[in-house]
Amino acid sequence: MSHPVNEASKAGADAERPSGLKNPGYEIFIAALSILSIVNLILIYVVQDESLDKVLAIMNIPLTLIFLIDFLYRMKTAPSRSYYFWRNWGWADLLASLPFQQTKILRVFRLVKVYRLLQEYGARNIVRAVFKDRAGSALLMLLFIGIIVLEFGSLEMLRLESTVEGANITTASDALWYIIVTMSTVGYGDQYPISNPGRVLGTVIIVVGVGIFGTLTGYLANLFLSPQKAQESEEAATPDVAQRLEALKDLVAQQQAAIAELESAIDDSKR
Description:
Blueprint: H1 4-16, H2 24-46, H3 50-77, H4 81-87, H5 90-96, H6 109-121, H7 123-132, H8 134-161, H9 172-183, H10 196-270
Helix pairs in contact: 2-3, 2-6, 2-8, 3-5, 3-8, 6-7, 8-9, 8-10
């Protein structure tokens, strides 16, 4: 049987313990990237294909960079850096962000944070937080979708085109380059699919790219215009307040004049 004092002390210690969890939308984004990196690791060992290995090796570069930035961000903003590093798997985050094949398996520890996120916030609160910060959550979601489309679009395009006679998308770098320029709607035309399935996939990539970059442009425009709109609202409200103050001063002056006239009339009547 546990003692009430001990349970209270434990509860107090847990309340004071630094959480280390960030915005729910950001945590979901990092967790999704962690799952993707683990899937890539499994694919490398299960599917013995040179082209796949090259695509995943290239895609590991931005993933590693994101994980390294995430570790530095958590380390800088942690309430207790020593607690985060030694007791909250910060050391695993650091090792998992290194560009070595042997340390990538440590990204599994990041999935524990998903469980902790669900425990601490609850599923409903997470959904509410995501909808509350719709702009930021949408930006992170678009970034994740872009990474997914870039990786698996390159793999599928390479599978469809590499064996076609006369194709010019035959290597991992060709496929990645084609997906990047197509998603960004630049379309240099130096790489293009020649098979019908490849063209269908290219059409899908174009539509997705237009949606991603269109939404990103709208988000950035809103981000830069919001402070300007707030400033304009304040400037518009300032003259209104000044006018009300002037009207109030005139009303007070009129009341004082009326009081003075009334006092003068009373004095005259007494005489």
